Records
---
Amino acid sequence: MLEAIKQARAAVGMLNPDEVRRRARLPVRIGLVAFDGAGYAAMEDFLAPALDQVYRAGDPGVPDQVDLVLYQQGIPCPQDAYLLRFDDPAATVAEILRDHGDLELALASRFVPFRKPVVERIIQAVSRENAVFAVATALPNLVPSLGEIPWAFGEFASDTAFLTANQVRMAFLIAAACGKEVGYSQRAAEILSIAAGAFGWRALARELAGKIPFGGGVIPKGAIAYAGTFAIGKGLEHYHHAGAPYTRAQREEVYQAAFEHGKAIAEAVRGKL
């Protein structure tokens, strides 16, 4: 769990829109292998409209190396390639992301089928990081023996600063995955929304942690950190997809469901710490 906390701290160290843009703009060359023109057309439709780095096998100008190769169903597929299963494209996408996590932002920014799963991965990862941090920073006050742990959180003087910064990083990552421009000016409205909500629900979390005896407040504090981050992430995803923010009812529904999941995560984190 300490390693997970260090990873969360390092993640916020990447609160740099230039780095997010660099990852989103990495070149991704995809090779296609199909029976005939109709097969190639179907595979290209799946990847459209970003076809400038998609190559048909045997065509002139195909590069010597590509980042991944997709095979049409019915053609024997080697182990280092992927079968594009039109009956279950999500399985193909999941396999590619499992093997090419370093390209997930670049894939999502260019190819629509990768967007939703990549955004979901981002939201889940950042929400869990914030839950781990919220629980970990509460425990030294409850268990004195943990006070000597070298937290090494550097410039983040409070959990509010860390959680907010991590949510801003999440906003950059989600925007990049959705093919949008990334930067403080481009995402100003989203950042202001995150900052505006930073103190309300986290003040409640601190109050719960302080008033419930024997460390019981650690669980709701971690659950609130998880649920608040998750609700922000899903709201950003909906905004980029639908062009409109969540309604209040939608926000509350997402938050309540995430809070229950956050409690389970917080309990597991406290147990391990």
Note: The first helix runs from residue 2 to 12.
---
Amino acid sequence: METVIDNELFSPEHLYDDAFKSVNATEMAKRKFRDIATIAGLIFTGYPGHQKKTRHLQASSQLFF
């Protein structure tokens, strides 16, 4: 444990950059999940000729995520 602390792993020096990268990675994971869930049939995209709006697909996929 001391080795981790001595390497300044939990240093507040790069906290903003790390937090920003983490949020961006989470958003990208959500988008990838939405695409995969749509292809897998987990998300109902609507009947032929009456597709659901992208906003509804995003909400449905976020519930699964």
Note: The mean pLDDT is 80.
---
Amino acid sequence: MNIGIVGCGNIAARYATTIGAAPGLDLVAATDVLPGRAEELAASFGGVAHETLEELLADGDVELVVNLTAPQVHADVTRAALEAGRHVYSEKPLALRHDEARALVELAAARGLLLGGAPSTLLGEAQQTAWKLVREGAIGTVRIAYAEANWGRLETWHPSPQSLYGVGAFVDVGVYPLTIVTAMFGPARRVSAYGTVVMPERTLGSGETFRLEAPDFVVAAIELERGVVVRLTATFYVMPSKQRGLELHGDDGRLYMAAWDAANSRLELATGGGDYEPVELVREPYDGIDWSRALVDLAEAARDGRAPRANGEHAAHVVEILDAIRTSAADGRPVEVHSGFTPPPPLEWGT
């Protein structure tokens, strides 16, 4: 499948590197609103640098648009690509509001196109191993999940983090464990949340200061349809440290994943009242995040006539959960979640 990248910022080179290493994927085009960035990406990884999105969408070689733009314009770019007849894989979130996300899912279906959405870290070896253990009953019936998405102060390393601060920590990083637990245990049905700004003024490396538009600390209790209760914390203040990862608690034991984003995360299992013991993964893991894995799956889904595992329907449901978290944190009341999705199957090697 031939890929065109829209948005050549901080994450684009990571995608381009893994696309180049993946069989069956070719990077053929790129564009960015800032002059020079698409040219730089194309010079390093190949493909044609287009001056505008419209020009890229007119390129007949592009079959799949990978949307790596700022979250605030994800929906607009994805809509334009779908209307131009292209499959789309969007970085998270699919949109900033559930009604926008749902409209994109419906548009893709009406056009007979595939719509995929990040994050796709469920496709990693550690995550597939954890899911396999849960399905096999290694810790019995799972009733509680704890997840920590502590991502620290973005301005200490990111050259332009304002757009990420604008949408907040839950939208940027809380979606990683949220997507994993909903894939494993099904849709959410109710959310209770608290959010606040703990450090309102931030300073870039250049010395420029800016103030936050969204909470940099959020805690949410998310009740899933199948009875699992998820307590998830997301923050842009606390650094990644010992309080990070995903822990599943069942009637017969516990399962701990140290890094929900890394395919080679440490995985530990405790049964009964015993101590945690390391778990061997189902196969040799990728080191970190394989950014192209969901793109390979989407290309195979197009060939096989099925939905991609990291699909737009699931991504849209996650957006409704994010909407509910914002509303609950603002109003102090639980908020119902109404949408659903068909949970993806595990990868063949994850069974």
Note: The two ends are 26 Å apart (CA to CA).
---
Amino acid sequence: MVGAGEPSAQPVARQVLAHLAAGRIDEAAQLSNEPARRATVLRDYLARVGETEFKRVFTQYLEPQNRVVAEVAIGPRRLLIWNLESAGRRVAGQYYIETDGTFLMDDRPGPERVALQRVLAEHRARAQR
């Protein structure tokens, strides 16, 4: 768990979400360690759900009742676990990596990412009880 005073991915996450809530895919994708891949994934999602739903999904993260309930670190990688109260207490996760003193969305698979995915799955299971 990332403690108070330790470097956190939360400021970058909020910046990414603000870009996405406004529909600014290219700006959000630039905050990834794989910007072209992230832009493609986001454009595919936009095409699937439409602009209104795309913006709604990302705007909900920024609503006051929704918050990060945990930040888990494995080396430079971070998992932000969100409790989305406005979405029926849904638990969501975002993955980041610290690179050269800054955080980026982590879009590269690897063993640490798999371990963080297990942490998210365990948190979701506990939240459903």
Note: The chain has a mean pLDDT of 94.
